C-alpha cells in the first residue's frame, strides 16, 4: 500500500515519500523495537535482530510509489506522535502508516499461506528473507531473571498477541486502537490477541512496559561476537580437501578402468568420526575441533563478564581424544557413567559447539569443563590414564543462568573426601579461605596454580557436623572491579554459592541493600546462621543473603535479640526462605533457631519486602513469652488465640504458655494486613 501524498503535502507524491522517510529516521529505534518484539523467537537472537532491521528498512516505499486517495493513510490514533494540525497528514500520519507496514511485515514471519496445512509450521522458504552478516553474531544485551521470564512468556504466545502487547504498552494504544491496527495488519483474531495480551507477564503492566523498554529488548543496542572462527577455517580447509579428494577419486577411477586396484585407505589419527545415532547438528557439535575458545584477555575487554569470557585452561586443553570422549559421553550418557544434575538443569546433548573452560588432570582424574553458551556448565571426569570406554566416567550438569562477576567467579573442579578444589575465573586477583564460624580469625591465603586451580579447600559439613564452615574469599582484578571482595562457599553443586548480607535497618534511615559479606558485622551474622546452609545443599542455589530485618529488646536481657531472614535464590528462579531467631548474647558459634521455612516464595527479596515472624522464648527468669518481629514497614502487631495482645511498632513480646497457639498479624502503611510466615 503506497503512501498517499495527496493530503500530506499538497505538492505531489515525492514529498509524501520524504515524510515517510523522515518518520522512519526519527522513530527508527521505536519501529525496530516493535518489529523485534513481534518477530518469532524461533528465528534465534542473531537472525531476529537482523529481521527487525530489515522489516523497518523495507517498509519505506520506493521514490516512485504511486499516489492513492487520502483515505489510504491511517488516521491518527493515541500513541502516535501528534502534529499541530491534528489532521491525517503530516508526521503523525506518516509514522502511523510506517508503523502499519512494519507491523504487517513482522507478522508475516508467522503467517502461513492459505494452502499450507494448519498443523505444520510455516517453512523457512516461505518467510521473508533475512539479511546475511558474515563473521559476526549480533544480539541484545542479556537481562536478569525477570527479563528472561518475560522473554519466555512472549515466546509461548502467537505473534499477534506479542504485537497487541507492544501496541498497548509501547505505543500507548487503547484496546480499540490496537484491535483496529492489528486488523489492518492482517492478524486473524485481533480482539482475541488483545484479550490474551492482557495476561502476558502478569498483572503489573507498568513493570512489563519498563522491561520492554530496557536494553534487553532493544535490537538497536546490540552486542557483537565473532562467529565460530574455527568452524569457518575448517570449512575452508574442508572445501580444499573436497577438491583434492575429487581429484584423487578421478585418478583412482581412471586407474580402476585400467585394471589397477586402488590402495586401501583409512582414517587418520585424531580424525573426528561422527557419532552414530544422533542428529547431524548434534554430531557436528561433538567435534572437539569446533569447541569455542575465548582469547586469554577477553575478560578484561568485554561488558559481559561471565563464563563466556573464560579462556580454556589446563594441560590437556589440546587433547582431542579426551575432549572427544567427554563430548560423546555427554551426548550418549552411557549406563556406566555416573550422572548428577542440579534441579532444572537439562542433560540434553549440545546443539552447537560448547565452550571449553578447562581440560586437565586434578587429584588423579582427567577433568573437562564445558559451558554450552546458554544456561549450563558441564563437568566430565574420568580416571587419569584411561583411553576409551565409559566405565567410571562421571558427568555433572549445573545451571548458570545470567552468571556475573561473582556467580561466575569459580567452579568446583574436583572433590575428594573432605576437600575440594576450585577453578577460578581469570579476573580473580586474590584468593583466601576463612571459617565462617570463626569470624574473628583472619583469612588465610589460598594457593592457586598457573592453570587457575586452587589448593584443596575443606568441604563444609563433610564430616556430618558443623564445627567449621569453610568459605573462600575472592577479590576481583582492578581491571574490571576495583577492590571488590566477596565470599563463596561450596554447597555441593558445580558452582559455589555467593554469600551476601543486608544490615539491620537504622532509625530514620532508608532501606538497606544487600552488600558483600566481608565486613565485621556480616561475618558475625553469618557465624550464627552458617550451619543452616546445610538444608540448602545440592538444591541448585545461586546466592544466599542474610537480612537482619529486626532487633528486639527482651525482658531481663542486656543485649537485643536479632531476627534474620536467610534467602536462597536458585539458578532456575524460585527462592527459599529460612527465618532465624538469634537469642540475646549468643556467641559466635551459637546457631540461630530456624522459626520458619518457606519454599518457592518472594519473601525477603525486592519483590517481597515485608515480613513478620514469631516464636516462643524462655527468659532468664524462666518465664515463657510469645515473640514477634516485623520488617521496617510494619506499623502494628496483633496476637490472637491463646493470648490476645497488641503492640505498636515492629516488635511484640507477651507472656504465654510454652505451647500456646497464637495467630500473629501485622498492619502495613497502606492499611493491609500481613500474616506471620511459618
Bulk shape: flat
Structural class by secondary-structure content: alpha+beta
What's the total helix number? 13
Mean pLDDT: 80
β-strand number? 27
Major beta-sheet overview: 10 strands, mixed
Helix content: 10-25%
What percent strand?
15-25%
The end-to-end distance, rounded to whole angstroms, is: 63 Å
The gyration radius over C-alpha positions equals 31 Å
- Poorly predicted parts: 1-15, 64-89, 114-126, 228-232, 251-278
Lay out the secondary structure.
Layout: H1 13-26, H2 28-38, H3 45-57, H4 90-107, E1 136-140, H5 145-155, H6 159-169, H7 175-185, H8 190-197, H9 205-212, E2 222-226, H10 229-257, H11 280-285, H12 320-332, E3 338-341, E4 355-362, E5 365-371, E6 376-383, E7 394-399, E8 410-416, E9 419-424, E10 428-435, E11 444-445, E12 457-458, E13 470-476, E14 485-489, E15 497-502, E16 515-516, H13 520-529, E17 541-552, E18 561-570, E19 575-582, E20 593-599, E21 612-618, E22 624-630, E23 636-641, E24 645-648, E25 651-655, E26 662-667, E27 673-675
Parallel strand pairs: 3-7, 15-17
Antiparallel strand pairs: 1-2, 4-5, 5-6, 6-7, 8-9, 9-12, 10-11, 10-13, 13-14, 14-15, 15-16, 17-18, 18-19, 19-20, 21-22, 22-25, 23-24, 23-26, 26-27
Helix pairs in contact: 1-4, 2-3, 2-4, 2-6, 3-4, 4-7, 6-7, 6-8, 7-8
Please describe what this structure looks like.
Helix content is about 25%, strand content about 25%. It has about 675 residues and is an alpha+beta fold. Strands 10, 11, 13, 14, 15, 16, 17, 18, 19 and 20 form a 10-stranded mixed beta sheet that branches. A hairpin with a 2-residue loop joins strand 4 (about 355-360) and strand 5 (about 365-370). Helix 2 (about 30-40) runs antiparallel to helix 6 (about 160-170), helix 3 crosses helix 4 and helix 6 (about 160-170) crosses helix 7. About 40% of the residues are buried.
Amino acid at each position: 500500500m503506497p503512501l498517499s501524498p495527496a493530503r500530506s503535502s499538497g505538492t505531489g507524491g515525492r514529498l509524501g515519500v520524504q515524510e515517510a522517510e523522515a518518520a522512519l529516521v526519527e522513530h527508527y529505534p521505536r519501529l525496530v523495537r516493535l518489529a523485534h518484539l513481534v518477530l518469532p523467537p524461533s528465528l534465534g537472537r542473531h537472525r531476529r535482530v537482523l529481521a527487525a532491521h530489515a522489516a523497518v528498512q523495507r517498509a519505506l516505499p520506493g521514490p516512485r510509489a504511486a499516489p492513492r486517495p487520502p483515505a489510504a493513510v491511517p488516521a491518527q490514533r493515541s500513541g502516535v506522535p501528534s502534529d499541530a494540525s491534528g489532521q491525517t497528514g503530516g508526521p503523525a500520519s506518516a509514522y502511523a502508516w510506517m508503523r502499519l507496514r512494519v507491523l504487517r511485515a513482522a507478522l508475516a514471519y508467522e503467517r502461513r499461506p492459505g494452502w499450507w496445512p494448519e498443523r505444520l509450521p510455516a517453512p523457512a522458504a516461505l518467510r521473508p528473507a533475512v539479511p546475511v552478516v558474515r563473521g559476526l553474531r549480533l544480539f541484545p544485551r542479556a537481562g536478569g531473571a525477570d527479563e528472561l521470564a518475560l522473554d519466555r512468556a512472549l515466546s509461548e504466545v502467537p505473534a499477534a498477541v506479542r504485537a497487541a502487547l507492544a501496541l498497548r504498552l509501547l505505543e500507548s494504544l487503547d484496546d480499540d486502537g490496537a484491535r483496529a491496527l492489528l486488523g489492518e495488519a492482517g492478524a486473524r483474531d485481533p480482539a482475541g490477541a488483545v484479550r490474551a495480551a492482557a495476561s502476558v507477564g502478569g498483572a503489573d503492566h507498568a513493570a512489563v512496559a519498563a522491561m520492554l523498554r530496557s536494553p534487553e529488548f532493544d535490537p538497536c543496542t546490540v552486542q557483537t561476537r565473532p562467529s565460530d572462527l574455527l568452524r569457518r577455517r575448517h570449512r575452508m580447509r574442508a572445501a580444499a580437501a573436497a577438491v583434492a579428494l575429487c581429484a584423487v577419486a578421478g585418478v583412482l577411477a581412471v586407474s580402476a578402468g585400467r585394471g589397477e586396484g586402488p590402495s586401501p585407505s583409512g582414517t587418520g589419527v585424531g580424525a573426528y568420526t561422527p557419532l552414530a545415532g544422533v542428529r547431524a547438528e548434534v554430531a557436528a557439535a561433538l567435534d572437539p575441533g569446533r569447541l569455542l575458545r575465548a582469547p586469554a584477555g577477553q575478560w578484561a575487554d568485554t561488558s559481559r563478564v561471565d563464563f563466556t569470557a573464560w579462556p580454556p585452561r589446563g594441560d590437556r586443553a589440546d587433547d582431542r581424544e579426551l575432549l572427544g570422549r567427554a563430548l560423546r559421553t555427554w551426548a550418549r550418557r552411557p549406563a556406566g557413567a555416573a550422572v548428577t544434575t542440579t534441579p532444572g538443569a537439562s542433560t540434553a546433548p549440545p546443539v552447537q559447539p560448547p565452550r571449553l573452560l578447562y581440560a586437565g588432570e586434578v587429584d588423579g582424574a582427567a577433568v573437562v569443563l564445558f559451558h554450552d553458551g546458554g544456561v549450563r556448565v558441564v563437568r566430565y571426569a574420568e580416571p587419569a590414564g584411561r583411553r576409551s570406554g565409559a566405565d567410571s566416567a562421571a558427568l555433572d550438569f549445573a545451571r548458570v543462568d545470567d552468571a556475573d562477576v561473582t556467580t561466575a567467579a569459580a567452579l568446583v573442579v574436583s572433590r575428594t573426601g573432605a576437600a575440594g578444589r576450585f577453578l577460578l575465573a581469570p579476573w580473580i586477583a586474590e584468593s583466601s579461605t576463612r571459617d565462617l564460624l570463626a569470624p574473628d580469625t583472619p583469612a588465610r591465603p589460598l594457593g592457586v596454580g598457573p592453570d587457575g586451580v586452587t589448593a584443596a579447600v575443606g568441604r563444609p559439613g563433610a564430616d556430618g557436623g558443623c564445627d567449621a564452615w569453610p568459605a573462600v574469599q575472592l577479590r576481583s582484578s582492578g581491571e574490571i572491579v576495583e577492590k571488590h571482595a566477596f565470599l563463596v562457599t561450596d554447597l555441593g553443586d558445580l558452582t559455589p554459592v555467593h554469600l551476601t548480607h543486608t544490615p539491620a535497618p537504622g532509625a530514620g534511615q532508608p532501606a538497606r541493600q544487600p552488600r558483600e559479606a566481608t565486613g565485621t558485622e556480616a561475618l558475625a551474622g553469618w557465624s550464627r546462621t552458617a550451619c543452616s546452609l546445610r538444608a540448602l545443599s545440592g538444591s541448585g542455589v545461586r546466592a544466599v543473603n542474610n537480612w537482619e530485618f529486626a532487633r528486639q529488646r527482651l525482658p531481663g536481657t542486656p543485649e537485643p535479640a536479632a531476627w534474620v531472614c536467610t534467602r536462597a535464590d536458585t539458578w532456575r528462579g524460585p527462592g527459599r526462605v529460612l527465618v532465624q531467631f538469634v537469642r540475646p548474647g549468643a556467641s559466635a558459634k551459637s546457631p540461630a533457631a530456624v522459626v520458619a521455612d518457606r519454599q518457592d516464595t518472594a519473601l525477603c527479596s525486592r519483590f517481597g519486602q515485608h515480613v513478620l515472624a514469631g516464636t516462643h522464648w524462655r527468659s532468664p527468669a524462666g518465664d515463657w513469652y510469645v515473640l514477634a518481629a516485623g520488617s521496617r514497614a510494619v506499623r502494628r502487631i496483633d496476637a490472637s488465640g491463646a493470648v490476645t495482645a497488641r503492640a505498636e511498632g515492629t516488635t511484640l513480646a507477651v507472656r504465654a504458655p510454652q505451647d500456646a497457639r497464637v495467630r500473629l498479624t501485622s498492619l502495613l502503611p497502606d492499611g493491609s494486613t500481613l500474616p506471620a510466615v511459618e
